[in-house]
Structure formats: structure tokens, C-alpha cells
Design goal:
Elements (H helix, E strand, L loop, with lengths): L9 H39 L4 H18 L5 H42 L10 H6 L32 H4 L13 E2 L8 H9 L4 E2 L1 H13 L26 H13 L9 E4 L3 H15 L6 E4 L5 H8 E4 L2 E4 L3 E4 L1 H10 L10 E4 L2 H6 L5 H8 L7 H4 L6
Parallel strand pairs: 3-7, 3-8, 4-7
Antiparallel strand pairs: 1-2, 5-6
Helix pairs in contact: 2-3, 7-8, 8-9, 11-13
The chain binds adenosine-5'-triphosphate.
Organism: Periophthalmus magnuspinnatus
Family: Belongs to the DEAD box helicase family.
Pfam families: DEAD
């Protein structure tokens, strides 16, 4: 039996059927979606209050995934619309939550800030006077219990008055103008005939101001011997500060030679230390010039010769006994330390005059610790340093 074929309704009728079917399907889906929305809304509302935005997102995602299992592929468009709607709802909710969280944070910050500003005044600002009077140690915040840092009071610092020693605070001032303050040799007291003659033979008729001031002072202090100054006191140390070319070299050369020229036994009694070999050579030359005609011997140890040659010029051994060959030694710091450390030919037992020329530059070479080595080499090293400096210092 043949089945009755459906009546031909034309192409338009077929299309209508399809449309009506899809419309009904769409209507169903919409209903489902509405139900789901209602369902989701009623479920999520109470719990979302206690969840973080991240949890909410996860939840939404789970729901979306769960719902997609039940929906057919043809429903994807509708699903996307629903997702967007949900997302916007979630964003709105999370925005509110974020706002709430921010507000809470701000509140917390406000509490902390107010603690810092007003720990002890119950929220009121402290006046400047109160801050000044506040204790030195940091207080603990009443609200947090943490110590509040940075609240140290200002203390008036006592002004320190610099006190210079008398010899620096009240120095003997010497005229700067050399030409208008020349002193004829005949007027200079205590200068011996030998040196006057030597000066004249070197075409010097006048002494410069610094020379006229310092030479008599040194001669006076050594007038009663090398160990004792005026009144039985130890000879004074002397510090001279004068410009270049003012004649400082003769200022110490002349009195040292005059003080030593009557010596009986040759021993190193004067030591001049200079920063460079060239300066040592200049000073050695001046010493040699004015020591000429006396029995004084001037020796230079500045590295211009080998250490052994310098050693030989300092002393010799005769009859099993060491004999000094130098009364006045002119040295550079480096070589001086070498001789002190490496051999015993430099004996400083009888040293009476220590001359530190170019003292400002010599401070730079103090890293060689030549001065402390010198003090150690001196037999009076166990006595205080100032006694070591009984000699004159320029
Ligand atoms: N009374 C004097 N009359 C004439 N000339 C002098 C006199 N005293 C020193 N001179 C000469 O003046 C020059 C400078 O002297 P000197 O080298 O002693 O100065 P200084 O103060 O030691 O200088 P610097 O700080 O550069 O060593 C030298 O040529 C020296 O011969």
C-alpha cells in the first residue's frame, strides 16, 4: 500500500513552517534563559556578598560552562548574549565590591595617619612647643601599639669655642715688607764674628726681618748650653711661618752653626729634614758654606749616593769604636728611615736640633712615619714627645 504523499503546499508554505519552528524554539530558549537568570540571581545574591571579585568571576565561569552543557550548539548566539548580560551584571557587582574594599582600605589608612599625627593628643594637632618638649624616645601609638618614629625633639647644640695654644693664638708678628725692614748686621745681637765675616763675604750686609727676629731668639736660648734655655727651662720650640724668599734658610743655619761650632766631640747634633732631594741639596749647600772654616761636618743623606756610601759618610770604626763623621745631617724622610732601620751608623743619641723645613709638605710624607721612627731611634723615646722636641723646629 502506497503511502499518501503529502499535498504540495508550495515553497512558501515550507518556509513558513521552518520559520514557525525556529520561532517556537527561540521562544523556548528565551524562557529557559529567563528561568536560568532568575535561578542564578536568587542563588548568587546572598553568597556574592561574602566572596571576592575573583571568586565571583570563577563562579560565573563555572555557571556558564555548566549551562553550556545543557544548551545545544544552535543556542550559542543566545548564550553569548546571556553571557554578556551576566558579565555586565558581575562587573557592576564587583565594582561595588571594589569600591567597598577601597573604602575599607582608606578607612584603615585614615586610622594609621591619624595615629601618627596625634598619638598623645587624642586626635588634635600638636603645637610646635609641644613637639619641642616631647621626649627623645619614640612613643608607642595608642591605637596600633607600634612605636612612632621620627618624633625627636630639637636640642640646642652648644657652640664650641675653638681654643688655640698661646703660641698660635698670639704669635710674634714680623714685618712683611723686607726692603723697608732690613736690619744692619752690626745691630744684630749675639751673632759671632766668624758668621758676620761669612755673611759679609757672601755680600750680605743686612738681615731680613724674619732673620733679625728669630736668629737672636735661638742664640739666646742656647747661650747657656744646648741642654738648658733661659732660667734653667728647656729650650723653646720655634715655629716659623714666612713667605717664600724671606730668608728662612739662613734663619736656622746661622744659629745652629754658632751653637755647635764650639763642640769638642763630633756627634750628630742637628738634623734637617726636607721633603725632596733637591731641597735637601740646597740646604746642605748653605750649611756647608757657613760651616766652612769651622770644625763642623755637614753630611747629606738624600739618596744622591748609595746607602752604603751614605753610611760610610756618617760614621767610621776606629780602634774598634764607632766615631761619628757628621755634626749636621741634612736628610729626606725616606733615606732617614732607611738609615734608622738598616744600620746603626746614624746615631741620634746627641741630637739637639731638629729642623723640619717645608713643614706643610712634610705633613704629606708623614705616611712614611719618619717622625715616629726618629722618636724611637732617639734614646729619650720613653719620655714624652715634647721633650724630644726640645730642639728648634722651623
Ligand atoms: N739677609 C739677606 N740678604 C740678602 N740676601 C739674602 C738674605 N737672606 C737670604 N738671602 C737670599 O735670599 C734668597 C732666598 O732665601 P731663602 O732660600 O733662605 O728663602 P726661603 O724663605 O727659605 O725660601 P723658600 O721658602 O723658597 O725656601 C737666597 O738666594 C738667599 O741667598
Amino acid at each position: 500500500m502506497a503511502l499518501p504523499s503529502p499535498p504540495y503546499l508550495g515553497e512558501e508554505d515550507g518556509n513558513d513552517n521552518k520559520d514557525s519552528r525556529s520561532q517556537t524554539l527561540l521562544a523556548k530558549l528565551k524562557e529557559k534563559a529567563k528561568e536560568r537568570q532568575k535561578h542564578c540571581g536568587s542563588e548568587s545574591t546572598p553568597s556574592e556578598e561574602n566572596t571576592t571579585p575573583i571568586d565571583l568571576k570563577k563562579k560565573r565561569k563555572m555557571q556558564v560552562v555548566g549551562s553550556s552543557d545543557n544548551v545545544k550548539e544552535s543556542d550559542q548566539d543566545e548564550d553569548v548574549i546571556q553571557k554578556k548580560k551576566k558579565k555586565s551584571a558581575v562587573r557592576q557587582q564587583t565594582g561595588e565590591l571594589n569600591f567597598c574594599l577601597h573604602a575599607e582600605k582608606l578607612q584603615a589608612l585614615k586610622i594609621v595617619v591619624s595615629d601618627i599625627q596625634t598619638p598623645a593628643t587624642g586626635g588634635k594637632d600638636m603645637s610646635k612647643d609641644q613637639v619641642k618638649d616631647s621626649p627623645q624616645t619614640p612613643e608607642k601609638s595608642a591605637a596600633t601599639g607600634f612605636p612612632v618614629l621620627g618624633r625627636f625633639s630639637k636640642k640646642n647644640i652648644l657652640k664650641v669655642n675653638r681654643v688655640l695654644p698661646q703660641w698660635l693664638a698670639k704669635p710674634d708678628l714680623i714685618h712683611q715688607n723686607i726692603k723697608d725692614n732690613l736690619h744692619p748686621l752690626s745691630e744684630v745681637p749675639l751673632l759671632c764674628a766668624h758668621l758676620l765675616k761669612k755673611l759679609q763675604s757672601n755680600h750680605i750686609q743686612h738681615l731680613f726681618p724674619v732673620q733679625a727676629e728669630v736668629i737672636p731668639a735661638i742664640l739666646e736660648s742656647s747661650h747657656h748650653g744646648l741642654l738648658m734655655g733661659p732660667g734653667g727651662h728647656r729650650p723653646r720650640d720655634i715655629c716659623v711661618s714666612a713667605p717664600t724668599g724671606s730668608g728662612k734658610t739662613l734663619t736656622f743655619v746661622l744659629p745652629v752653626i754658632q751653637a755647635l761650632m764650639q763642640r769638642v766631640v763630633c756627634e750628630v747634633r742637628a738634623l734637617a729634614v726636607l721633603p725632596t732631594k733637591e731641597l735637601a741639596q740646597q740646604v746642605w749647600k748653605v750649611f756647608s758654606t757657613y760651616a766652612d772654616g769651622t770644625q763642623l761636618k755637614v753630611v747629606m743623606v738624600a739618596g744622591h749616593k748609595s746607602l752604603a756610601a751614605e753610611e760610610a759618610s756618617l760614621s767610621e770604626v776606629r780602634g774598634g769604636q764607632r766615631r761619628s763623621l757628621a755634626d749636621i745631617v741634612v736628610a729626606t724622610p725616606g733615606r732617614l728611615v732607611d738609615h734608622i732601620n738598616k744600620n746603626s751608623s746614624l746615631c741620634l743619641e746627641h741630637l739637639r736640633f731638629l729642623i723640619i723645613d717645608e713643614a706643610d709638605r712634610m705633613i704629606d710624607s708623614m705616611h712614611q712615619s719618619w717622625l715616629s721612627q726618629l722618636v724611637k731611634a732617639h734614646p729619650k723615646s720613653k719620655t714624652p714627645l715634647r721633650q724630644m722636641f726640645n730642639e728648634k723646629m722651623f
